[in-house]
């Protein structure tokens, strides 16, 4: 342990291409089906967490995005307890250290308001930081899963599969890497952040209602997803983009279909989300092959997957169809010189009202969690930046 | 046959509470599952058709809503041919009459642009008029089905079930009446016509794509609908509104879920449709029991089912939440004195932008097709009203 007892880790966001929806165990967060995701580059989007414990701390404290937050979150407490338990078993640190109170400070480098899977990056980051802090050796994906289901996929870079598992203790419900971040270097993602004021059903509540009320969910979990997951892994390993994209779109649609089959229905996509779907299909039709895939999580934002050579054309199209008053409409890997205007003239869909898409994050496949040297807690164990 | 050889029939619109989606035979229009509908009062919405044939007509002619339209519609030709075939078999009219060309004039008394199931009323009306004209005795629901699947349900009043059947010739794919129009006199419908410029996938194309691509459709047709249909018939016979309403909402949502699971997805509901769903669930929650059901066909318009004592409150709420600049916002059975304002103050959903709902048709359960004495064709067999 360093003299001032701090560990800082960054962890990536992941966006599923085969969706996780429905738990068979609420407490252990065990899913009813496998899922597959792509881990996105931490240089564009990441969570960052510093942990620090000292004998003189009087209580556990938590700061999230610069705001002091209650520590009494059952999932957080559960993760911390499990990790300390493993550390005690493995005798990985001096037993005294385990009795000290802890300070945790965590931030996302992207707006949480964007509705992007921030809890996945957050819990992957937290458990990695704690595991390193207490020097334990264990399957981090299982620990991250206990914090937030899909977080288990953020402990690996590249392309990741979360195996639903069959054991009732969750010991086989873990993530494995299908291929690392260097496997398919042309893969890009464009996250289209949709302007939206609507309050959505939280995914925890939504899933619970789906499991309780949707006939179609059972069929999806038992028949559709297993077949699709195998095909998806194959498409990734073969770098078959058209297949990867088709499976991604079909699975996103089926996940939202199950949400709609829930009673009362959970609706996450808006008219703008559906316009993006229409645009992607029209673009692929025009190209005569599948060049872009869309996928939507439990919110209206679209994540488009595409290959690097198509980014310029697709960004040009998006900027044309979703006019924006923002000077920083495209962020991340950055904007790309517009090269083509022919496409825009003949495209069958007209430009939409201004600013229905807030901004676009241009990113790529990235690595798993990594240790950082710049901390969020000072040498006394208090946040360097606190929002009032 | 009257001296001037004219028969005029009016026929009702029906709105399904268990949806028809997917054919097992495109030509014969045989569905993959049973469906159930409510027939709506012809005094509010109906199709009206006059047929007339004469030895001196040189060609078959068709006028739809005052506009001369090509007769070479395969479904129309198919219906006419089948009916003439039966008439020849039954020797119901002089064989010469069957050789005469025919004039058909048909109108809806409601805007077709409203996207309301006008083809169901239209084909039920046409086959009833032709059957009466040629004096045949046959199952009209089977003939109407050949014109437009759901039209088979419009040949009866009240509550109607279309049996999918199993025979490959369609001889058992017919409608029967569950209960007549006097069975549940309190039942009312409010059709909310949503402003919408979007072009939707036609239901014929949509169904075909769903059958081809949706895994969930197979499960719906085989497992969900049969159970639900039996429960629906029971709820209707027992006049159990809460059960009727719950099944109606679940089935509408599942039908749209299957549309979304189609590749590429068929999307018929808009943000406004989903807002209506949210309002109905919030209203029912507030009442502590299910007082209103929503159902959506292949378009954004909502049909709400409710009982007469609740109409005033629900219309007051709709007018508050969907402000309109139209002086005739509520049509049909008419508007109702607003009695309550307490509800509006505490309702958890805010009023929407003006005019997102164009108008509301207030109607009730009605009878099947009936003969009328005021014709659409004059004594020479030409339309009384023709639009230029």
Task: Report on this structure.
The structure is a homodimer of 388-residue chains. The first copy, chain A, is 35% helix and 23% strand. Chain A has helices spanning 74-90, 95-99, 118-133, 140-147, 203-213, 215-238, 241-260, 271-287, 311-321, 342-346; strands at residues 6-12, 14-18, 23-25, 30-31, 35-39, 46-54, 61-64, 67-69, 101-108, 159-162, 175-179, 187-194, 292-296, 302-307, 330-332, 357-364, 370-372. Chain A contains ten helices and 17 strands. The radius of gyration of chain A is 21 Å and the shape is globular. In chain A, α1 (74-90) runs parallel beside α3, α3 (118-133) crosses α4 (140-147) and α6 runs antiparallel to α7. In chain A, strands 8-7-9-6-1-17 form a six-stranded mixed β-sheet. Chain A folds into two domains: 6-182, Ribosomal Protein S5, domain 2, CATH 3.30.230.10; 187-364, Alpha-Beta Plaits (2-Layer Sandwich), CATH 3.30.70. The model of chain A has no long low-confidence stretch (mean pLDDT 93). The two termini of chain A are 32 Å apart. Chain A has 388 residues and is α+β, with helices and mostly antiparallel strands. In chain A, a hairpin with a 2-residue loop joins β7 (61-64) and β8 (67-69). The interface between A and B is medium-sized, with 27 and 27 residues. Chains A, B: It catalyses: (R)-5-diphosphomevalonate + ATP = isopentenyl diphosphate + ADP + phosphate + CO2. Chains A, B: It comes from Parnassius apollo. Chains A, B: One of its GO terms (molecular function) is diphosphomevalonate decarboxylase activity. Chains A, B: Residues 11-175 form the Diphosphomevalonate decarboxylase-like N-terminal domain. Chains A, B: Its EC number is 4.1.1.33.
């Amino acid at each position: 342990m360093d003299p001032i007892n701090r560990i800082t880790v960054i962890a990536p966001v992941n966006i599923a291409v085969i969706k996780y929806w429905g738990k068979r165990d609420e407490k252990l967060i065990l899913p009813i089906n496998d899922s597959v995701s792509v881990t996105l580059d931490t240089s564009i989007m990441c969570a960052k967490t510093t942990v620090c414990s000292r004998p003189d701390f009087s209580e556990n404290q938590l700061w999230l995005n610069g705001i002091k937050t209650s520590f009494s979150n059952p999932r957080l407490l559960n993760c911390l307890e499990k990790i300390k338990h493993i550390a005690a078993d493995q005798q990985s640190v001096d037993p005294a250290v385990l009795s000290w109170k802890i300070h945790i400070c965590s931030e996302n480098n992207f707006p949480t308001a964007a509705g992007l899977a921030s809890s996945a990056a957050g819990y992957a980051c937290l458990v990695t930081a704690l595991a390193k802090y207490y020097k334990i050796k264990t399957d981090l994906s299982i620990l991250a899963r206990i914090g937030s289901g899909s977080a288990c996929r953020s402990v690996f870079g590249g392309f990741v599969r979360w195996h639903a598992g069959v054991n009732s203790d969750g010991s086989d419900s873990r993530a494995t890497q299908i291929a690392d971040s260097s496997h398919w270097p042309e893969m890009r993602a464009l996250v289209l952040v949709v302007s939206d004021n609507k309050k959505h059903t939280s995914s925890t509540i939504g899933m619970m209602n789906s499991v309780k009320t949707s006939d179609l969910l059972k069929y999806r979990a038992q028949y559709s997803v297993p077949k699709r997951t195998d095909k998806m892994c194959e498409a990734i390993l073969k770098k078959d983009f058209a297949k990867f994209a088709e499976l991604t779109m079909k699975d996103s649609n089926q996940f939202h279909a199950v949400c709609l089959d829930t009673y009362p229905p959970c609706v996450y996509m808006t008219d703008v989300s559906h316009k993006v779907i229409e645009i992607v299909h029209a673009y692929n039709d025009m190209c005569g092959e599948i060049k872009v895939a869309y996928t939507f999580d439990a919110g209206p934002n679209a994540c488009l997957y595409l290959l690097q050579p198509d980014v310029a054309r697709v960004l040009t199209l998006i900027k044309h169809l979703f006019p924006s008053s923002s000077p920083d409409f495209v962020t991340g890997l950055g904007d790309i010189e517009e090269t083509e205007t022919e496409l825009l003239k003949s495209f069958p869909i007209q430009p939409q009202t201004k600013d229905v898409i807030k901004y676009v994050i241009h990113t790529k496949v990235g690595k798993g969690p990594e240790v950082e040297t710049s901390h969020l807690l000072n040498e006394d164990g208090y946040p360097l930046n606190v929002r009032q």
